[in-house]
Amino acid sequence: MLREKIVWKLFLTYAGLVIISIYIHKMVLPGVVLGFALALGIAFLVARAITGPLREMRAISRDIARGDFSRKLRVDSKDEIGQLADALNRMSEKIKKRIETIAGDRDDLLAILSRIIEGVVAVDREEKVILFNPAAERMFALPKDKVLGEFCWEVLRNSELNSLLKEVLNKGELLSRELTVLFPRERIFAVHAVPLGDREKVWGAVAVLHDITGMRKLEEMRVEFVANVSHELRTPLTSIRGFVETLKEGAVDNPEEKVRFLNIIEKHADRLNHLINDLLQLSRIESREIKMESRSINLKELIDEVVADFEDKMDRKGQSIEVKISPEFPEIEADRERIEQVLNNLLDNAVKFTPPEGKICLSALEEGEDIRIEISDTGIGIPREYLSRLFERFYRVDKARSKELGGTGLGLSIVKHIVQAHGGTVGVESEPDKGSKFFFTLPQIQSS
What we know:
By secondary structure, the chain is of the alpha+beta class.
């Protein structure tokens, strides 16, 4: 359109000049034709010189709109068109740099979000999910592709989280809450949600989920531990106090009763002493106050010594024991006293919970770079649901039977911490009425 207007104006101008020239100079027809041709040629060249750069600007502007910043305008003049071309080039370069900066910031943000352990979920004003980091994918067992762009209440399926996000969108203020997620497994999260945008104009909300399941479990274990310790201490103390009062009320004058009561008091005092010693020992092992004094140990000799200490007890119950360990079994590097304590605790449990005429087997074998020691029995066995908690302090499957057989409830926990302090692992396999197998591993001595 611009070119046609320019051509038309130039044509009229030159045509007028030609007519006047013919009129004044009384030129002939060839002069008129030549004048018109000259006017048209000049008009075409001028129009092309003006509209050519404009067409190129339009093409490059379209490329910029599509995100292509590779082409630049050639600036051949310093007139208005040249200045316009230079401005367009500078604008293209600035837009390119800003897009690169934004893309870099976005990549950095995504890299950070992908590496943090907290789940991050963001929604817009319509409660559609706009951000769902990898940690959130793992927490909810949902792929990001199926969540982004969907309503949070349709895909997250957690009423507490959805209510929290909606409340933040409505109130425009930070809110914190604890919530429980049941799928894919039960976990507890501390959630902090904040609005996006100004308080007067909230356009979204973001929630950060921190998994505190382990913390809550530790808190429950602490409460349970305090309750167990209190109970274990209170029971013998109550008995001691009761018998002391009985003696003071006159039983002290009855020689037979006096001796019986004193024996009971002594028994409970010994139980208290064992409990306190086990607690102190466990605390020192956990805090690494007790250092493992490692040295080379002949495992065959150590096992034979431990088994010999239990022979009388097993004979009284009619139990038999089989030791499977080669005399040439390689030596291990460990604290002899502590490993002896581990074997004593495990063998003592096997003898306690194996019925008369039962059988116990103690074996050792090489397992890669470790050695594995197993103590199996034909005892009462343990239901599968209790196995994961057996090495916890004071945990008992059958509390009444455990108290009847004695013990502080700390033996297996001490075993676990001693073995772990040596760089080994502990475990158990068991089924009701089919016996149990307790085992632990220790690193072998590495030959130089």
